Amino acid sequence: MADQAFVTLATNDPYVKGALVLGSSLRQHNTTKKLVVLVPPQVSESMRKVLHKVYDEVRVVDVLDSKDSANLALMKRPELGITLTKLHCWTLTEYSKCVFMDADTVVLSNVDELFEREELSAAPDPGWPDCFNSGVFVYQPSLKTYSDLLHLVTEKGSFDGGDQGLLNTFFSSWATKDIHKHLPFVYNLSSISIYSYLPAFKAFGGNAKVVHFLGKVKPWNYTYDCKTKTVKSSSHDQTQTEPEFLSLWWNIYSTQVLPLLTEHGVVKDTATGLKAEEITESVEHMSIAPTHPTISSEERRERWEQGQVDYMGEDSYENIRKKLDSYLQ
């Protein structure tokens, strides 16, 4: 329908890469909805031109910042204050219904059925399931809702300093009132939660429709090494991102997005160091190998106690099994 749209927010040029991959994945899976991206003034003009190649509308919006440094400090994510700019999505009143998706998500299949849901429909947050995760949600644009949200954030702020805390306060009945507004987890599958409940991921992960790359390290923060044909993190990725999903993101980026960046004269992509055609040829053979620092046994124990388990490394099931076998023998 012409009056329904998928909406995202690209707060800076690096996040534009994510938005381009998201939009390309929606196009790839034949969405019938409009695609809209919100950008603040600091997004470069060259990147906006590329966005116009994928999105039906590129709308420049003012930056809303919670300036709530105390609450943001609790999350150790001060950059999330700018995500309140997401509230501008309620001003898109030319659309009767929208689905907002963070720029660090990617769709694995057609998800147009989300528009059958009502406001505010969202999936549980893996860290606190009585709250919804604001990375994917169905909503109805309304200037009144926009005004009420601004009033709430001015009067009470956000309990996490970002949009998720604010939206969960505003739509506080989500947890208890209407189960039909609870999206299945497959519509907002966190790459981090995969390793907190690995058996469930193995059982149901094949049904995933939307993957959300939560955490500080995003797919575009990885570097492609053409010599070893691996993707390496520029910083220590402790979120344990699923390699299969990283590979999927990079495949879309290299085959559909990077050619657009090259075509529009955007500076050589620093995340890859390769020309578009070089990546296109080799991406099918690449493997994902984020590097992890060697830690002491004391630090490893401390991480265990904090719930930070290296399920794919030293703390993998295979390694634990081998240790148990050695004791039994």
UniProtKB/TrEMBL annotation:
Cofactor(s) for this UniProt protein: Mn(2+)
Keyword Nucleus included in the entry's annotation: yes
GO biological process: glycogen biosynthetic process
Record keywords, A-Z: Cytoplasm, Glycogen biosynthesis, Glycoprotein, Manganese, Metal-binding, Nucleus, Phosphoprotein, Transferase
Pathway: Glycan biosynthesis; glycogen biosynthesis
A GO CC annotation given for this chain: cytoplasm
Cellular compartment(s): Cytoplasm; Nucleus
Matching Pfam families: Glyco_transf_8 (PF01501)
EC number: 2.4.1.186
Origin: domain of life: Eukaryota
UniProt main location, coarse: cytoplasm
Gene3D superfamilies per the UniProt record, alphabetical: Spore Coat Polysaccharide Biosynthesis Protein SpsA, Chain A
Reactions accelerated catalytically: [1,4-alpha-D-glucosyl](n)-L-tyrosyl-[glycogenin] + UDP-alpha-D-glucose = [1,4-alpha-D-glucosyl](n+1)-L-tyrosyl-[glycogenin] + UDP + H(+); L-tyrosyl-[glycogenin] + UDP-alpha-D-glucose = alpha-D-glucosyl-L-tyrosyl-[glycogenin] + UDP + H(+)
PANTHER family membership: GLYCOGENIN SUBFAMILY MEMBER
Family per similarity comment: Belongs to the glycosyltransferase 8 family. Glycogenin subfamily.
Function comment: Glycogenin participates in the glycogen biosynthetic process along with glycogen synthase and glycogen branching enzyme. It catalyzes the formation of a short alpha (1,4)-glucosyl chain covalently attached via a glucose 1-O-tyrosyl linkage to internal tyrosine residues and these chains act as primers for the elongation reaction catalyzed by glycogen synthase.
UniProt name for this protein: glycogenin glucosyltransferase
Organism name: Pelobates cultripes (Western spadefoot toad)
